[in-house]
Design brief:
Structural class: mainly alpha
Radius of gyration: 16 Å
Oligomer: single chain
Helix content: over 70%
Protein name: DUF465 domain-containing protein
Number of domains: 1
Distance between the termini: 19 Å
Number of helices: 2
Number of strands: 0
Pfam families: DUF465
Length: 65
Amino acid sequence: MYTRLKALRSQHETLEHQIRREEKRPAPDVVHVRTLKKFKLRIRDEIARIERVLDRNQRGDLLPT
């Protein structure tokens, strides 16, 4: 699970760079930026889900909340 978390964080950072680069263009493709942002949000949500699971496991609380 840690490997997946690391990969997701890397993807999230890469998307952030792509978004910034596209937004700096003289005529950014707003549809592409919106798509990248939605994908980045899905990744952020998955990161948060994995972190919650890991946090519960570290506390020894195996039941979902």
